[in-house]
Specification:
- This protein is α/β, with parallel strands linked by helices and 367 residues long.
- The protein has 2 domains: 4-81 and 188-247 and 316-366, NAD(P)-binding Rossmann-like Domain (Rossmann fold); 96-169, no CATH class.
- Helix content is 32%, strand content 20%.
- The strands form 4 sheets. The chain has a 7-stranded mixed sheet with strand order 7-6-12-13-14-11-15. Strands 9-2-1-10-16 form a 5-stranded parallel sheet, with helices on one face. Strands 3-4 form a two-stranded antiparallel ribbon.
- β6 (85-88) and β7 (91-94) form a beta hairpin.
- The relative contact order is 0.20.
- Bound molecules: dihydroflavine-adenine dinucleotide.
- Dihydroflavine-adenine dinucleotide (FDA) is lined by residues 9-15, 32-35, 40-42, 56-60, 214-216, 232-233, 251, 312, 341-343, 349-352, 354.
- It comes from Jejuia spongiicola.
- Its cofactor is FAD.
């Protein structure tokens, strides 16, 4: 018997926003997730007052006032500004590339001096049509920034030599000729006070939710419960990998609790060098200006992806895009199923983009 208007598979941001809006419009929803908790990748684990971003550091940022107002309904945001630093060959550099970074690299104090160095290096190494990531980076920023802050980090991140990586991975490299370490250019930025779980709890308030349920373990029975399904899991899995796996890059997180107040003085510290196997250390308390006597740090190790691991970053090469297009064509024939979210669309989305996408899809569905 159909008890629900919508069965929502996946309690990540996409599924939760869809469920919230549909419920507000009078529809009955059931949200399920195969994990032991709701929230998908924005879920935080509370370690004695410190919100640990379990699936990687999450910093909210947007230029869209509507999306900002939307999330602020559920939680107030603090004024955290992301200003990561990067360690390369024992020296510390500010990110994103700006006048502080150029001073640290060359001792330059004016935009003209820095610009001259970068432009000369671009001329020296510039490629008309870059054939790989290395050539692309050299043609955009020159050799010093590339060798000190991009090459080894990127090679660790993707597990491949920069000369074997496609140029399109780096579309542009933001360069600022101001002393401004604010990583994002967006007007609105911060971390929800009380963590992302507060937003998820607000979105799911009053909605029936079940965790520890894998849609595929009971597909027929679950499908029969609702008139329509909103599916936010992996699209290739939905079609039983008919055209083969869509590939991802995975991450392994190693969390350590330390009995000291402050370990690295910043939420995000990148490790550029190839002899250090992790790419970043996150110290979570700094996202919320925590004053606890203890701290929790997470080392982030990029890894090859296999089906048993978490799928983090889609590998957007031609082969995967062709496969995805085949899956997408099949999904368009499923009139009772709405596919949405990063896994069903095989696309990297930031949080504000996933919220916008869910709002747009639910509006279309309900109109
Ligand atoms: P999400 O993956 O969150 O949810 C899908 C859910 O479906 C999961 O909970 C999963 O368990 C469930 N599911 C899948 N298959 C199922 C099945 N068969 N049965 C039941 N349940 C199933 N964005 C940003 O704005 N700022 C940032 O700083 C970051 N940082 C960041 C770091 C890292 C490492 C990554 C990978 C991503 C980010 N993001 C980000 C992006 C952000 O994580 C992303 O936009 C949202 O989490 C996407 O929400 P979804 O609902 O699409 O997927």
């Amino acid at each position: 018997m159909q008890k629900y208007d919508y069965l929502i598979v996946g309690a990540g941001l996409f599924g939760c926003v869809f469920a919230h809006e549909a419920t507000k419009a009078g529809k009955k929803c059931l949200v399920i997730d195969k994990r032991t908790h709701v929230g998908g990748n924005v879920y935080c684990e509370n370690v004695d007052g410190i919100n640990v971003h379990k699936y990687g550091a999450h910093i909210f940022h947007t230029n869209d006032k509507q999306i900002w107002d939307y999330v602020n309904q559920f939680a107030e945001f603090n004024n955290y500004i992301n200003s990561p630093v990067s360690i390369s060959k024992g020296k510390l550099y500010n990110l994103p590339f700006n006048m502080n970074t150029f001073y640290q690299l060359w001792g330059t104090k004016t935009p003209e001096e820095a610009k001259t160095i970068i432009e000369n290096q671009i001329k020296e190494y510039g490629y008309k049509k870059p054939k790989n990531l290395e050539e692309q980076a050299l043609s955009l920023i020159g050799k010093d920034v590339y060798k000190t802050l991009i090459k080894e980090y990127t090679e660790k991140q993707w597990g491949k030599k920069a000369t074997e990586l496609p140029a399109f991975i780096i579309k542009r490299l933001p360069v600022r000729y101001t002393f401004n370490n604010n990583y994002f250019n967006d007007k609105y930025q911060g971390i929800p006070i009380g963590g992302y779980n507060k937003i998820i709890d607000g979105l799911l308030d009053g909605i029936e939710t079940k965790t520890n349920i894998d849609f595929f373990e009971n597909k027929a029975e679950l499908t029969a419960l609702a008139s329509k399904i909103v599916y936010t899991g992996k699209i290739d899995e939905f079609f039983n990998y008919k055209f083969g796996n869509l590939e991802y890059r995975s991450l392994r997180f190693e969390n350590t609790r330390l009995e000291k107040e402050n370990h690295q003085g910043n939420a995000v510290v990148n490790y550029n060098d190839s002899d250090i196997p992790y790419t970043r250390i996150i110290e979570h308390k700094h996202f919320e200006f925590g004053k606890q006597n203890h701290t929790v740090i997470t080392k982030e190790f990029p890894e090859e992806w296999t089906k048993e691991k978490e799928a983090y970053y889609p590998i957007n090469n031609e082969d995967n895009q062709n496969k995805y297009q085949q899956y997408k064509a099949l999904s368009l024939k499923e009139s009772n199923i709405i596919f949405g979210g990063r896994l069903a669309e095989y696309k990297y989305y930031d949080m504000h983009q996933i919220i916008a996408s869910a709002l747009q899809k639910v509006k279309k569905e309900l109109s």
